[in-house]
Amino acid sequence: MKLSKAQLVAVIVAVVGIIFFSAKAVIVKLAYVYEVPAVSLLLLRMSFAFPVYVIIALIRKPSSPEQIKGKDYLWLIAFGIIGYYLASLFDFLGLQYVKASLERIILFVYPTLVILITWIFFKKAPTRVQIMAILLSYAGVFITFSEELGVAGDENVLLGGVLVFMSAFTYASYLVGSGYLIPKFGVVVFTSYAMIISCVCVVIHYAVTSNDNLLSYPSEVYWLGFLMAMISTVIPSYMISYAIKHLGAPNFSIIGSLGPISTIVLANIFLDERLSYLQVVGAIVVIGGIILVSRKK
């Protein structure tokens, strides 16, 4: 099938957005070299991204304001906390213990968690193909992760894997729960509101738990925080929304399989991370399972 000009542009935008998103784990690992605590690094990311989301929230208005009720704003706060605060926090904490490439492989299973959560809470049973895809995905994660445990021999690797999986779970919960709010607010407005709520949560968390001076780090840390906010948060969030709008979610999910691959390549270049042949096989199995689970019936 020949792509239209608009679809070709959307594919290019999708690929660039996915690569930008995938760079986040690499940037986080680079910042950890300077011994920055996870919460402080998360605050730097949110501080740089916050003004952009506030400006967009002021400019753009909800898609269907007449449908929005008071309880919808309460749910918006809840999903902002779950989807962008907790998911990011678990991810940043997990990256202290696992490779960037392994982190992306574990995070990539979130579509399977969406199906499982929908099954549990909304009684929508998965198809046989989806069940096979879920089992395939987790088999790939097990292959990759068990190899890493054998190489590292460190219980912290297991802790890091659990934390990253919790990030995937909270993000999947956010996707399931926010489904009915997005049509009311619109993707751009909803994302902006949720990110603003997340920023507030991170500031509170930092104020309550941290003792370090956020202004005491080398200039490289702030540049990395800025890159993380712009290149791996703000810009790709809107690029991917654009791509999904023009390609549809099923087609985008196939392109999205580039995520773990691009992270592995970037981690190899910038962090000198190496995956064994068995881990590469595990990554391919995970990607195959997610492509299968994302296909239309």
Automatic annotation (TrEMBL):
Lineage top rank: taxon: Bacteria
Protein name from the UniProt record: DMT family transporter
Residue stretches spanning the membrane: 41-60, 72-93, 105-122, 129-145, 157-176, 188-209, 221-240, 252-271, 277-294
Family note: Belongs to the EamA transporter family.
Species in which this protein is naturally found: Fulvivirga marina
Pfam families named among the record's database cross-references: EamA
EamA domain mapped to chain residues: 10-145, 159-294
This protein's UniProt keywords: Membrane, Transmembrane, Transmembrane helix
A cellular component term, taken from the record's GO annotations: membrane
Membrane topology: Multi-pass membrane protein
Subcellular location: Membrane
Coiled coil: none
Chief place of localization: membrane
